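Revision sheet: structure tokens.
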Amino acid sequence: MTLDWSVVWDNRAQFVQGAVMTVQLAVLTMLIALPGGMVLALMRLSRFRLLERPATFFVEFFRCTPLILQVYWAFYVLPAEFGVQFSEFSTGLIALSMNVSAYNSESFRAGINSIRKGQLEAGRALGMAPWQVMRKIVLPQAVRRIIPVMANTWVSLFKDTSLVSVIAVAELSYVSMQLRSQTFRVFETLTAMAVIYWCMGYPQAKLTDWINRKYRVTE
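Predicted:
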């Protein structure tokens, strides 16, 4: 087998653009999914069924169906059946954001439920309203406890962005596959893609390990 790595160097600008798109997609998704997950978690913890049941359905649907199906559904079904159409990037962002919001909601809910009821009762005994107890006592502790989980979710999200390549979002996977088809240099292009993903993902994995050690709950 004769290798020709010039195909990677000659198309380095496209690889860089794809990597930048991957980072943008992951960052925007998490910026949407953090507040989205919090809202869903609070809805699921609500005593009102009109809030709890829709949130539960949303979360269970997106947790129990494949992400790639959600991407396809947003790209093909929304325009065809509902007349709602977005750009490829926006469609991928919407699908990823809804999926990650569902997972984040369960992380937030678990963090909130992990706070001892005695602390809630103490806050109420001091005359604090329920929303004050949640904001000043429960959420600060819950957020600290779920930081390691969110770090792991981020690493998974960073890799899952590759799935939006199926709807032609020009992130790293899509760019690599296009170059593979155009140049027929399968080994070189896919190896370059793997190396770029590793170079971006390894520091994140090490940071996640550090976060897990720093913020792990010992009680």
